[in-house]
Amino acid sequence: MKRLSADVVVIGGGATGAGVVRDVAMRGWSAILVDKADLGQGTTGRYHGLLHSGGRYVVSDPHSATECALENAIITRIQPQCVEQTGGLFIVGPDDDPEYSDRFLIGARATGVPCEEISPAEALRREPRINPRLQRAFAVQDGAVDGWQMVWGAARSAMEYGAQVLTYHRVTDVLVRDAKVVGVVATDEKRGEQVQIDCSFVLNAGGPWAGQIATMAGCEQVEVVPGRGIMIAMNHRLVNSVVNRCIHPADGDILVPVHTVSIIGTTDVRADDPDRLPIPREEVQQMLDAGEVLVPGFRESRAVHAWSGARPLFKDPRVSATDTRHMTRGMSILRHDVRDGIGGIISIIGGKLTTYRLMAEKMVDAMADQLGETRPCRTADEVIDPPGSSTYHVTHRLEEREGDRLDDQIICECELMNRGMLTELMAEQPTANFDDLRRQLRLGMGPCQGGFCSMRATGIAVQEKMVDVERASELMRLFLKNRWIGLWPILHGDQVRQTALDNWIFHGTFDLEALPESQEVAL
Amino acid sequence: MTDDLNHARDELMRASLDHCVKCTICETQCPVARVTPLFPGPKFVGPQAERFRHGESVDESLDYCSGCGICTHVCPQGVKIAELNIMAKAVMKADQPPPVMKGLRDQVISRTTVMGKAMTPVAPVANAALGIGLLRKAVEKVVGVASGAPMPTARTETLRAWLRRRPAPPAATREPIVFFHGCAGGYFEVETSKRTIEVLEHLGFQVLVPKQGCCGLAQQSNGLFENARTSVLDLCDALRSVGKELTIVSSSGSCTGMLKHEAHHILGVDDPRLLDVGARIRETSEFLLELFESGEVLPEFRRVEATIPYHQPCQVKAQGMGMPALTLMEMVPGVRVVESGQPCCGIAGTYGLKEEKYDIAQAVGKPVFEMVKATNPDLATCDTETCRWQIEKGSGVRTVHPIELLHFALGLSDDLPL
């Protein structure tokens, strides 16, 4: 068995884990992050794309609101390239209770969430497609954030501080000796080998899987309730700022412009298994109806993809275990030495992507405290993105393409990803599958959903000698299969025509099923 | 940003991009993309790039779109590609005004009426000046009108002057109709207008020609939306002034398209005056073919033994009415029409006049020029003024409106090389 060692093993490569490994490494401990799949493949990648202003929580969860407002500013400063400062609106719809909006305004002042009431006419000037029958409107500092860019940014920063990041390493055991964690055993899924990492501390940032990890260390009854929610990406930006309904947080009340799409969400239903998250058709209909309230005509616009994510909610005995909507969005840090008598392990549960850095800070503070050390956190002060970076804007890729259009081949037409971007990342991450590349490059995330770009990417992977023909075929099949998961639940209107064309290309012309097969399961 | 451009940015026309399935048919048919890599193609700058547009314009290459509209015409999914591109161009012009002289140029070449009014009184001088290579080179350098680009020939008599001077037409036997001559038809292509009127009168119609201005198409395609909007509504008033329910006929192919659909779709004009005119207007060949096929009027054509090359302009194709001119000309005994099979002649209104687009426009037009030369070195036909100038200049073959062939076949004239 392969042996590695580090002071700290961070389990979970979502935003929280990436933030934690960065923080640990910056404070001078040696660290290894492991995740059973790719970075940001769990909850971090299956969310709304919203960088909260805090507005959503000013009434229901004032503490979270203040945290969001502060962290929003910090993230925008340290990771500008992941953030689009779209601004946001809270609108009181024609049938919404206006009483809530008074409480909203009071709550915003009390929590320090910047908020300004604007006239309905001004709101319509800013966002001409929103419901013209709105009663009131408030402008806030919501933004859009690319969760994958954010996670990779934090992970790369950690690596610069000497940390190792091991993706596709599934933890199978947490080793405990004399009531103290001494190591972690994982399976390297891509190479099929066992790895043991000796360590003196484990930081469990497993999100909805955190309970399973804690159990491996003998810490029982860490009940994480996966609160499943679906989101649907619409083909283009129906709005250019985040549009929220000014009501007590409910289903389908947020529309976020992220990159080239706008995302409607979400629902909140207790899930039993975070690895099995369905996208029920009735919830799709519910989202489309909710979209109509925000933007009349919403149903006629094109849905391109749907997904389901699981919020890791910590079961609070005060609320019913099925009422996930009202479980706390705040974070819970579990010191297992105190709680379970097992030293060297801390779990973090809950929280929000917007506050990922703060969660990491608190978790690492708790570890330092347990170790009796004082090493200050510097993650809010040091900028991750290259010096002089500015915030992202939707026009960026079009602008960049204008510069290289005569020199570089376009591979993903919908999302304007060129050949250079693809081959560069393939060379850096040679074991990556196309979904791994997709999360970082947006390959196949536009309206054609891989119909045209996946075969180009496959051809290039073979041409560049990254993979052999068998693996290339498997990778393409895997990619299309995964796209299909998010396609079939929303198949109506324009996306049906696209899917029919893609199907004719892959089956009718390309005979995908008859391509060479690999003996191994592609990962 | 003006309300006009807000329309351009936010109107649901943008929503038609949702229909794109990336099939690439538009890119295979785009006459510009096939001759130059400088233009990224209609699918790229249309439904794809539009998803990335918000606020500032960052993709100047979209300016290479000639606005010919072939992409919209061939799209099997109903994406308003050309319309999206023209709107984006207008937004770009507002965001980043072109250099002073190019801006001035775009203002001048999009005002055919002004050019006509200025040139007619001094026609021989104007024509001589346009023929002086050195002078044209200087104009190219200073304002960016290509020295080799086709320019209209100034006439010594405007259509209105002819209408005043000519003897009274024969008594009408059919209902009155309105003739829309377009700016070029009023000042430069006066012969086309005269012969259209004479053919219509020969068939028994009373032809009313109200005083009229420009339709605004050239302003629109140069991104000058506010001017275009004013022009088109003034024109509607003029055409409506002589009768409320009359058919309007025009031999100006592209201007007819402006009134039929472009002003509504691109400028977003929802004015009932435009919708009324748009519903009543017919392109001349469209009108005549309908009339002849109804059997109501059976013209007596003389036999003309000729093979005639015909190019249907992009903006006439965009009207989605098939090729009535082709069918119509072949109704003349002995006439065989050879269609160009090309999407565009390159000029696309004022595109091919511009110094930075001239070579592209010539390359686009080359297959049309070759086909014309190979088919009949003496005479070609085409429905739109600027396209005729382009084809004539590129091929050296005299190019006339199809109505002139009918005029000849009806025995009303004898001066075509047939």
Describe this structure in words.
The complex is a heterodimer of chains A (523) and B (418). Chain A is α+β, with helices and mostly antiparallel strands and 523 residues long. Among the domains of chain A are: 84-141 and 225-318, 2-Layer Sandwich (D-Amino Acid Oxidase, Chain A, domain 2); 396-514, no CATH class. Chain A has helices at 15-26, 62-78, 98-111, 120-126, 147-160, 210-216, 281-294, 336-339, 356-371, 396-404, 419-428, 434-441, 453-463, 469-487, 494-509; strands spanning 2-5, 8-11, 31-34, 50-51, 83-84, 88-92, 115-118, 136-140, 143-145, 164-166, 169-177, 180-188, 193-198, 201-204, 224-234, 242-245, 254-258, 261-265, 269-270, 303-314, 331-335, 345-350, 410-412, 417-418. In chain A, strands 6, 7, 8, 15, 16, 17, 18, 19 and 20 form a nine-stranded mixed sheet that branches. A six-stranded mixed sheet of chain A has the order 10-3-2-14-22-21, sandwiched between helices. In chain A, strands 1-13-12-11 form a four-stranded mixed sheet. Chain B has 418 residues and is α/β, with parallel strands linked by helices. Chain B is built from 22 helices and eight strands. In chain B, the strands form two sheets. In chain B, strands 2-1-3-4 form a four-stranded parallel sheet, with helices on both faces. In chain B, strands 6-5-7-8 form a four-stranded parallel sheet, sandwiched between helices. In chain B, helix 21 (385-395) links the parallel strand 7 and strand 8 (399-400). Chain A binds chain B through residues 128-129, 235-237, 240, 260-261, 297, 300-302, 393-395, 397-399, 401-402, 405-406, 410, 413-414, 416, 446-448, 451-452, 493-494, 497-498, 501, and chain B through 6, 10, 12, 14-15, 17-23, 37-38, 40, 43-44, 48-56, 58-61, 77.
Counting H and I runs of at least 4 residues, what is the number of helices of chain A? 15
Order of helices and strands of chain B: HHHHHHHHHHEHHEHHEHHEHEHHEHEHEH
Distance between the terminal alpha carbons of chain B, to the nearest Å?
A: 55 Å
- The secondary structure category of chain B is alpha/beta
Largest sheet of chain B: 4 strands, parallel
